[in-house]
Fold this sequence. Notes:
Layout: E1 2-3, E2 6-7, E3 13-19, E4 25-31, H1 37-44, E5 52-54, E6 73-75, H2 80-101, H3 116-130, H4 134-147, H5 152-168
Antiparallel strand pairs: 1-2, 3-4, 5-6
Amino acid sequence: MKFNGEKIRAMAEDDLVLPRPDGKHLTFHVRALGLGEDAEAKKLFPDPEAPYGFYKDDRGRPLRDPDTGKTEAGPLFSEPGFLAAVDRAERMRMIVKFVKALDADSRITWDAPGEGVDFYAACETEIRESGITDGDMNLVLRRAFQLGNLDSDSIKRAAEAFSERERAHE
């Protein structure tokens, strides 16, 4: 794709400095997430389906429809195993995005073997063992979203600019 005859650079990139507790810092070279990378993460780690079962009251007795007397059933969204699976899928999608956001940094290498689900599961272990915190991960992802104009401020500015253009054309 070109703009004014010049090829558009595929990915915006920038350095991000992460302070460490010992006073030192890590500087990562972060890139924006590309078109479709969120969908790729969701494909690798889809949302789990809630188990289907009978609804129960707070005493563990089956709930019954007051009109028919039939036991009520449906997806059990509060089932602990389902909630744990949702948390795992969300965390793994964050791992995928984190690894992809750091693709631009040639100093970062992964010992993780394989590809796909196995690769990202191994990356999760490496990330945890490296001492990267949830806060670090959030800073990297926030910067990747800013670079890709996906942070809330960029979206708000784009919506305001769009609204202004719409009003100008009325």
